[in-house]
Amino acid sequence: MNLLNILDKLSDDQFFTKMTSRSEGLSDIANFGRKAAIASIPLGLGSFMATDSKAAKTTVASTSSAASALTDALQLALVLEYLEDEYYRTGLASTGLIPTADRVVFQQISKHETAHVAFLKAAISSLGTTPGAKPKFDFTAGGNFQPFTDYKTFMILAQAFEDTGVRAYKGQAGNVASNKAILQAALQIHSVEARHASQVRRMRMNKGWIELKDGGNMPAATDAVYAGEENVIQAGYNTSTKFGAAAGSASFDETLSGSDSAAIAGLFIA
After folding, report:
1. What pLDDT, in 10s, does the model give residues 181-200?
2. CB-based contacts of 102, cutoff 8 Å, min separation 6
3. Whole-angstrom distance between the N-terminal and C-terminal Cα of the chain?
4. 67 and 191, same domain (yes or no)
5. What is the domain-level CATH number for residue 70?
6. For 50, which DSSP code?
7. In terms of DSSP bridges, do strands 233-234 and 237-238 run parallel, antiparallel, or are they unpaired?
8. Which domain holds residue 23?
9. Under DSSP, is residue 25 helix (H, G, I), strand (E, B) or coil?
10. What's the chain look like in SS3?
């Protein structure tokens, strides 16, 4: 787990900032883990030689805690990306479900989710941890939904999954902050997830952003996805002071805790 500090200092920033095609990006992702492993030994030794024994123990404990938080956050993100990836794959394979005009949108979103899964698996592996296996999903949530025979339901769950992903990535930002490279990549995934969410919401004739309880345009079964979005207090400032609660709450998107994100995903895991 000491690989955290190594990746933080030797991360290849150019990988995350250069303009590449998605196919090139996937190739770079595969190289990312190998570069980190090759770089690991000398920096790890140098870091501890410069400290006394007490400080070293503190450093080890702190690093271990940060490493655990980082890998837990990445494993959670991987479950959510597994869910989205399989959801869109299944939807696209369901004959007659998605109208022709909309297929191109979901085909592109599906490619993005596949790329996210590939990156997260590579990142987790580079930290010396085995990526979690893909769960067996039940997108009916025990028979409560029929997303692959009813397009309206498919769109509702697509919006719920994307909105969950956006909030979940924000909720885990602090847990991945110990690693600069992974934090930057997570933020890049987060912004794409937000674009997915906005696109799907607009396809459902919603606004691109989340409002109070989503304006009642989602079934009660999805309430957990939007819990807390009515908040208007940000760092002690009441955002509703000048524009009212609706605009105040919508101007700041809320986070989801890891436990809440896992609980939402768990509804669709068989």
Report:
1. 999 999 999 999 999 999 99
2. 203
3. 31
4. yes
5. 1.20.1260.10
6. T
7. antiparallel
8. 3-209+253-266
9. helix
10. CCHHHHHHHHCCHHHHHCCCCHHHHHHHHHHHHHHHHHCHHHHHHHHHHCCCHHHHHHHHHHHHHHHHHHHHHHHHHHHHHHHHHHHHHHHHHCCCCCCHHHHHHHHHHHHHHHHHHHHHHHHHHHCCCCCCCCCCECCCCCCCCCCCCCHHHHHHHHHHHHHHHHHHHHHCHHHHCCCHHHHHHHHHHHHHHHHHHHHHHHHCCCCCCCCHHHHHCCCHHHHHHHCCCCCCEECCEECCCCCHHHHHHHCCCCCCCHHHHHHHHHCCEC
Judge if 194 and 232 occupy the same domain.
no
Q: What mean pLDDT is predicted for residues 128-150?
A: 97
| Domain shared by 159 and 176, yes or no | yes
Going by the DSSP 8-state scheme, the letter that residue 233 receives in this structure is E
Query: What amino acid is encoded at 147 in this protein?
Result: P
Least reliable range by pLDDT among 34-48, 92-106, 141-155: 34-48
Q: Are residues 244 and 145 in the same domain?
A: no
Token digits for 234? 């940000």
* pLDDT of amino acid 171: 94
> Which tops the pLDDT comparison, 40 or 18?
18
Residue 15 shares a structural domain with residue 106: yes
**Closest alpha carbon to 167 in 209, 133, 203, 135:** 209
Q: In this predicted model, what pLDDT tens digit does every residue of 131-141 receive, in sequence order?
A: 999 999 999 99
More confident residue, 59 or 247: 247
> How many helices (H) and strands (E) are present in the chain, helices listed first?
12, 2
Name the token pair of 137: 């999903």
Instruction: Say yes or no: 227 and 134 in one domain.
Output: no
Are 173 and 111 members of one domain?
yes
- Confidence band of 243 (pLDDT split at 50, 70, 90): confident
